[in-house]
Amino acid sequence: MLDTGTTVICPVKSIRDLGIYLDSELTMKTHILKVVSSFYHQLRRIRQVHQFIGQNITQQLVSAFIYSRLDYCNSLLSHLPQSTIQPLQHVTNAAVRVIINLSLSDHVKPALKQLHWLPVEQRITHMLCLFMHHIHIGQAPPYLSDCVPTVSAASGRYWLRLTGSSDLCSAKNKNCIWRTWSLLLQPAAWNTLPSNLYDITDTHTFRK
What we know:
Strand content: 5-15%
Oligomer: single chain
């Protein structure tokens, strides 16, 4: 509790900033629960008109109202336990069942491949690599690029043992916010990509 003289500010368990719910322990559980609740609400509305609009229009609605939101700031969900992000996978499976008109007993994996949809955990990794791609080709703000310099630009015996000049490493900085971004932009997934992907400068080609 903070007393400013005219107003008493009380602590809360979570806050909303730019559409992201941040809880006091940064577990992201509040954000995921809020998002999943919104997704199921949209799914119920889409399911009511599914038989009248057909599969193609249904897929477009699901992509617009649900699947696109899975990508919004999903790098914040990286490195979370599987149990934490599992509700997002459940709602994704539910969306697939609505589009393909599957029953609860039908397997979802073949339908995911049919729609070219990645599982949520892999989708997060995909978007993280895309984020790194923008940094690598110079289309990211400098304050983000400074968080993950290339190995060739880093100093120290450990980095000298790494030969990939396009590999990225987390910058070491005493600033708390800087360290948080450096951890968030963990370049491990980028460094495991085939080296030929580093030379791609066209983002559309890189995504494919």
